Here is the input.
Amino acid sequence: MQTLTQHLQQQGISEPLCQLILTLAETSKSISRAVRQGALAGVLGATDHQNVQGETQKKLDVITNDMLKEALKASGHVKGLASEEEDEVLPVSEQGEYLVCFDPLDGSSNIDINSLVGTIFSILPAPAGALNEQSFLQSGRQQVAAGYVLYGPSTMLALTTGKGVSFFTLNPDSSAYLLTQDNVTITPDTAEFAINMSNQRFWEAPMQTYIADLLLGSMGPREKAFNMRWIAAMVGDVHRVLCRGGIFTYPTDNKNPNKPYKLRLMYEANPMAFLVEQAQGKASTGYQDILDIQPERIHQRVAVILGSANEVDTCLAYHQETYSDQEPEL
Ligand code: AHG
Ligand code: MN
Ligand code: MN
Here is the structure.
């Protein structure tokens, strides 16, 4: 089986990018170890700090963030980094060729129940000049690589450098990432959806109607039965979509008028949208391709609808019918 290093060399990507991806992969092995030790290493539970998102940080959010920061600082190829767990963007090395955005541990609410968590990353080219938040505000189309590591029954890396999507599985004996699936492709049609149904009453009209029609199954306009899954960690839900198709959405809701969206653009939606498009799927806000969004703030949030191309198109048609050309004012 091909190792991650061999695969990157075969893809002909630049040496600095190759080194940076390998740095992220190496760090994920240490994260995987910490996550697996769990209570034995005293890493479970919450801290008494809140992050910039207003969420209480878990111990593992902080530990994994520190691990990634240290590794990226040492890599020499990173000009700056942005993390879900950092208030502001951090300058790293002036000569670094890349910017890295990451969610060090996605699915934090799953930590204490020994369920799926992962690390999500996005790599952008570093613009010339002084590093500041503006340096990062590039659309998702500018990403040169993106991926996630899923700390599940197996530790798996999903990666794209713009030439399709590959899955690597961490061999626990040799500590090597080995290529276990190449050219990952999302089936265009599906009968499986993922949404937090408890927010139903807060969704916009088109999402209400779309999900209601899925729930009607073979009795409704879709004329087929749909199954539902919700892992409560985007990494887990997107991984399932990449493996066997599906539609995953965290749509706009009005539960809290100051927070109409849940997922973060720069280190959740963009890297996942890049992977999904590279696997022949689609990723939209309901009104625009996620990768076309011009970011305005490093921690900005967006609505996400992604997965099997035909199913996402069907969901978008509900949005187009309700609002002819533009996103409604919240
Ligand atoms: P994080 O743990 O990094 O804050 O992200 C959690 C996100 C995402 O991974 C997941 O899809 C969603 O929150 C789960 O939301 P619910 O709590 O509404 O299920
Ligand atoms: Mn997350
Ligand atoms: Mn997180």
The chain is about 30% helix and 25% strand. Helices lie at 4-11, 15-37, 59-75, 133-136, 205-215, 234-244, 265-278, 309-322. The pocket of AHG (ligand 1) is lined by residues 55, 84, 103, 106-109, 196, 232-234, 250, 262 (CB under 6 Å). The chain has a mean pLDDT of 96.
